[in-house]
Amino acid sequence: MIQNFSLLVVAAVLSVAWATPCTDVCYGACDVASQGTTIFLPFFQAFVEPSHDTCRAICAAKCNCVDTCQSACGALLTTCRETPGFYYFVRCQFEYTRCATVCFTQCGMETTAGLLSRTMSVFLPPPEEA
């Protein structure tokens, strides 16, 4: 039992250390949690696969925003930092924070709207055509 736990800890550390994109880190956490549940709580076996799939779906939605906003705002930060001086450094940090805040808010709202739309389409029948 201790060996299994040690292997899980090592796998988690290695997956986080080598995975740089958001999805790799998040999917690794889902995998470790799933394996831990299987090993330590075998009586919850029926819930392992659905919760693993849910975890990966949340990761995909969250990391889509992280990756999209990081590429959009990171390019702005990189070009802005090429100008030397403390004033420009502070200005770059402010612009990056503003860009990331707007981007994450917009992406999060779009993702939430998409999830709500899909959820509602499951529970409510489509409108009848006239």
TrEMBL record:
Residues 1-19 form the signal peptide. Keywords: Signal. This is Uncharacterized protein. It comes from Elysia marginata.
